[in-house]
Structure formats: C-alpha cells, structure tokens
Amino acid sequence: MHKTNNYFEIIVGTFVLLSAMFFLFNSVKGSKSNSFDSYSLIAKFDNIDGIAVGSDVKISGVKIGTVEGQFLDEKTYRATLKILLNSSVKLPLDSSAKIASEGLLGSKFLSIEIGSDEEMLKQGDEIKFTQSSVNFEDLLGKFIFNSTSSKDKDDENDK
C-alpha cells in the first residue's frame, strides 16, 4: 500500500512539472513574438497623469499598441513614454500623440493622430508633436474661481 502512494506521487509530480514547463515555454514564446511583431517609439509630454505602463495606444479608437515604459527625461524634466506599436502600423514622421480619456471619468490612453509626411518613424524614433494630459481638477478649479471672480466684478460694476 505504501508503494502505491509513491507511484501516485510520482505521476502527480510529473504532471505538475510538465504543466509548469508548458506554461514557461508559452510565456517565453509569447514574449519573443512581441519583439518580432512590434517596434518601439518614444514621446515626451509635460504631464502624463492617468497613463501607466500597459495603457492602450490607439488610432481612431482602434488599439495599435501599448505603453511599455515611462520615465523622466533628466535634461528637460519632461515625462517620457516608451510605446510599443504593432509593426503593421507605420506612422508618418509628422504624426502627433495626445493623452485622451475614454469619457469624463474613464481611463486614459494615448491617441495617435496620423500625419501626412512620406517618411515614416522607425524603431526608437521620437514622436515630436505631443499634447499632454488635461487635469480635470485644475479645469474645474479654474471654472469655479473664474465664475466667482466674474460674479464679484459684476457686483462691483452694479454699485
């Protein structure tokens, strides 16, 4: 009876080991296939609030890539995004990138506007034309304080 438990443990152990090897193989295969099917670009912004690693990159609402990394440019102090794009999508040199929102309270993504240049961006190039994230709290604060100040001015003019 003790011998039967050993065989069962060996069979289960072998199954677990083969399953782990299968998942490891597929994850390595998946990560390598991305490097062949994609290329990376960078884009610099004054503000990237709401964008994180893994955020979508879209053209006309269609996902064409993801944000692969973000860091601060130590010379210009601008936020820099490294984006990974599907290799089937070629961007003209004068294309632009802006941080957009999926709605008033929706998540943010990087939206690419296609340019008209005949020369295309290549691996590692920078998207030169960018528009930073709009901070809704700042806009709301400006709206509230401007409304209050203009009301105060109207009250003073009425006197």
Can you walk me through this structure?
- The protein is an alpha/beta fold.
- It has a domain of 105 residues.
- It contains two helices and eight strands; from the N terminus they run αββββββββα.
- It has an eight-stranded mixed β-sheet.
- β3 and β4 form a beta hairpin.
- It is elongated, with a radius of gyration of 25 Å.
Bin the helical content: 25-40%
| Strand percentage | 25-35%
Instruction: Summarize model confidence as the mean pLDDT.
Output: 84
Tell me about the biggest sheet?
8 strands, mixed
Q: Give the spatial strand order of the biggest sheet.
A: 7-1-4-3-2-6-5-8
Structural class: alpha/beta
Distance between the termini: 102 Å
Uncertain regions spanning at least 5 consecutive residues: none
Q: Please provide the count of β strands.
A: 8
Q: Gyration radius, to the nearest Å?
A: 25 Å
Q: Compute the number of helices.
A: 2
- Reading the helices and strands in chain order gives HEEEEEEEEH
Shape: elongated
